[in-house]
Amino acid sequence: MPLNVPIFLTWLRIAMIPLVVGLFYLPDGWVPARDAIAAVAFIIAALTDWFDGWLARRWNQTSAFGAFLDPVADKLMVCAALLVLLDLNRVDSFIALIIIGREITISALREWMAKIGASGSVAVHRLGKFKTAAQMVAIPCLLYWQPIHGVSLQWIGRVLIVIAAVLTVWSMCYYLRRAWPEIRSRGV
């Protein structure tokens, strides 16, 4: 396993998951700024997602392991945060199911397409990037939950998570449609 700054940042993102989740297992009042700390930790983790990819390309430190670990870290981070938000009744179970189900489905599809040598047909598309951006803004808003300067982060988070869910279904349909010719040609 190569170890460089981009992969270190990806591992850091994975290590932050227990911090975000753990904050919500502490008894109420133990951490007065719990929601703010969780939101900031999630934002830092989301920024490392962008930054590790940028550094890997810029410093020519891309690797097969990094290409594998980065999306796994993203999915773990988003799924863990959604489960916390579900437990707090800050996100609807149907929305969480759509997002988590899509992540599992597309991960499995990409793995299968790579096995048959057709991974290019399900390469990351900008639709998936828009979905990710909506999630990465919605989740910290929902974690923090309080208004800032009269702006309702709760409302912003709820609107964005619905947009993320719609983009989730749309992008899943896009990837499945792209993979369909390969699936049909193999008689699956």
TrEMBL record:
One Pfam family in the UniProt entry: CDP-OH_P_transf
Keyword set includes Transmembrane helix: yes
Keyword set, alphabetical order: Membrane, Transferase, Transmembrane, Transmembrane helix
This enzyme's EC code(s): 2.7.8.5
Transmembrane segments: 7-25, 37-55, 155-176
Reaction equations catalysed: a CDP-1,2-diacyl-sn-glycerol + sn-glycerol 3-phosphate = a 1,2-diacyl-sn-glycero-3-phospho-(1'-sn-glycero-3'-phosphate) + CMP + H(+)
PROSITE patterns membership: CDP_ALCOHOL_P_TRANSF
Domain of life: Bacteria
Record bears the keyword tRNA processing: no
Any one GO molecular function term: CDP-diacylglycerol-glycerol-3-phosphate 3-phosphatidyltransferase activity
Coiled coil regions, renumbered to chain: none
Pathway in which this enzyme or protein is active: Phospholipid metabolism; phosphatidylglycerol biosynthesis; phosphatidylglycerol from CDP-diacylglycerol: step 1/2
Membership in a protein family: Belongs to the CDP-alcohol phosphatidyltransferase class-I family.
Record's protein name: CDP-diacylglycerol--glycerol-3-phosphate 3-phosphatidyltransferase
Top-level taxonomy: Bacteria, Pseudomonadati, Pseudomonadota, Betaproteobacteria, Burkholderiales
